[in-house]
């Protein structure tokens, strides 16, 4: 394939052209440039930044050529897989080069159906669609629009976490392009330090061009979305806490509980996602939930492919995400919901038409998750240090304009701060240390939350495999180990 060179020759394009890559290169005057920019899930990530060029490699060797050329010329760059991370600068860059991995989206099942090779640029809905023809799944994203690489490199909570650990715990080998342009593999048997550091260490070491994951037989799952009236909130909170406490007895069952304002309802409702990966209909762990009156119900026997398509959080807005993890306690959840209700009323003043969406989202974070990670060989996230069962929290707001987003940010920050303060002060261990990278705002101290021992593993691997600090300086997006003190 001949290189597709745009008419507008910028310094960045000249660097890419001289490297001899056969990739397509887009600049702002190309029609396809606008399409790639608009394909980000969040307008916050795309509308505020305009790369001088977008490179679309098709192979690991092309990624290596691009990296070598950019590093030699000192040109800043960003790396994008699915484009789902919501904040500006995480996966895009202003005036530099965005390496768009969307063309590296292969799904290859091994002959013995034991492992699957997955490209970084695909989305989980497409991965599951291909695996479904084999009756297989992997421990990947639950929401179909999420990209492969971002989810796994940030750890990745999945439908299989209670049984198999996080998504990263299910990777048996990474193929990585280092800052030097060398293409290497990392596994338990080779470059084991890099292998472990990549399990939650994100974009601090190189660009992953293939994830080899353990294949999981999964012909059918039971579950789906339900919507409950706001009046059921106290009952739903108790059911959430009980489910989390009981999950060790049914590690095939999952729960996402969302207290959400939606323009459709013009009020807060309780949305839930159930999923039993063994295909067991209405197992006992859901008994309390299924007794609650429902406004709408989409629960059925289905496939992971179809559920990933159905569980889609709409994008296209200006999005704020924050996260924390708490002790599994009903009073903490109730306080967060109370503060969320107050936030919704404040946001109605900003957007008088009520065209925004919020989520006060909780999901189980039992000690079992960390134990499963340890059994799989360990990662650097530090969840295995958790002293008791917890809840993972996502606080999110999706506004219609950039002005509304700016007005909402201090209100959301106060909601988050007040919830964290209540959890920390109301009981011992109420606020847990772990901050989940994939849900975090850039102001949050994600890597530091992993603990000193894990920070050292990430720091040491970054220094060894990227001694010049290319992925700290020239590739500034994401959470960087160089920004962690100590």
Automatic annotation (TrEMBL):
Q: SUPFAM superfamilies, per this entry?
A: FAD-binding/transporter-associated domain-like
Give the molecular function GO annotations.
Answer: FAD binding; oxidoreductase activity
User: Which PROSITE patterns is this protein grouped with?
Assistant: FAD_PCMH
State if Oxidoreductase is listed as a keyword.
yes
Keywords for the protein's UniProt record, in alphabetical order: FAD, Flavoprotein, Oxidoreductase
The chain positions of domain FAD-binding PCMH-type read 47-218
PANTHER family in the cross-refs:
BINDING OXIDOREDUCTASE, PUTATIVE (AFU_ORTHOLOGUE AFUA_1G17690)-RELATED, FAD-BINDING PCMH-TYPE DOMAIN-CONTAINING PROTEIN-RELATED
Family classification: Belongs to the oxygen-dependent FAD-linked oxidoreductase family.
Name the record gives this protein: FAD-binding PCMH-type domain-containing protein
According to its UniProt entry, this protein's organism is Microdochium bolleyi
């Amino acid at each position: 394939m001949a290189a597709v060179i745009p008419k507008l020759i910028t310094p960045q394009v000249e660097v890419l052209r001289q490297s001899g890559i056969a990739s397509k290169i887009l600049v702002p005057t190309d029609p396809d440039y606008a399409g790639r920019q608009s394909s980000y899930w969040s307008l916050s990530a795309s509308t505020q930044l305009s790369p001088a060029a977008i490179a679309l490699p098709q192979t690991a060797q092309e990624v290596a050529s691009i990296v070598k050329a950019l590093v030699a010329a000192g040109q800043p760059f960003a790396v994008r897989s699915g484009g789902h991370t919501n904040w500006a600068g995480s996966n895009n860059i202003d005036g530099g080069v965005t390496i768009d991995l969307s063309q590296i989206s292969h799904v290859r099942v091994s002959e013995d159906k034991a492992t699957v090779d997955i490209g970084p640029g695909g989305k989980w809905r497409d991965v599951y669609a291909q695996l479904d023809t084999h009756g297989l799944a992997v421990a990947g994203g639950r929401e179909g629009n999420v990209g492969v690489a971002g989810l796994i490199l940030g750890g990745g909570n999945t439908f299989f976490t209670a049984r198999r650990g996080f998504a990263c715990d299910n990777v048996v080998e990474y193929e990585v392009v280092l800052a030097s342009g060398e293409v290497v593999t990392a596994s338990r048997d080779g470059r084991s330090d890099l292998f472990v550091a990549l399990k939650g260490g994100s974009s601090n070491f190189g660009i992953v061009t293939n994830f080899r994951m353990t294949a999981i037989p999964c012909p059918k799952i039971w579950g789906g979305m339900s919507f409950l009236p706001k009046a059921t909130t106290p009952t739903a909170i108790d059911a959430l806490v009980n489910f989390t406490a009981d999950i060790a007895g049914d590690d095939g069952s999952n729960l996402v509980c969302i207290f959400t304002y939606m323009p459709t309802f013009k009020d807060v409702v309780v949305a839930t996602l159930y999923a039993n990966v063994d295909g067991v209909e209405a197992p006992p762990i859901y008994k309390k939930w299924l007794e609650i009156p429902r406004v709408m119900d989409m629960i059925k026997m289905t496939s992971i492919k179809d559920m990933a398509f159905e569980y889609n959080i709409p994008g296209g807005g200006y999005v704020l995400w924050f996260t924390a993890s708490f002790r599994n306690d009903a009073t903490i959840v109730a306080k967060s919901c109370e503060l969320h209700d107050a936030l919704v009323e404040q946001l109605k003043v900003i957007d008088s038409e009520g065209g925004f969406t919020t989520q006060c989202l909780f999901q189980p974070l039992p000690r079992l998750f960390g134990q499963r990670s340890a059994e799989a060989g360990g990662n650097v996230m530090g969840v295995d240090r958790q002293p008791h069962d917890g809840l993972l929290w996502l606080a999110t707001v999706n506004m219609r304009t950039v002005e509304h987003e700016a007005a909402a940010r201090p209100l959301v920050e106060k909601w988050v701060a007040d919830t964290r303060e209540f959890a920390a002060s109301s009981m011992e261990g109420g606020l847990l240390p772990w901050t989940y990278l994939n849900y975090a705002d850039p102001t949050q101290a994600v890597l530091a939350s992993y603990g000193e021992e894990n920070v050292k593993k990430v720091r040491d691997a970054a220094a060894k495999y990227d001694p010049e600090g290319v992925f700290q300086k020239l590739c500034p997006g994401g959470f960087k180990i160089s920004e962690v003190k100590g």
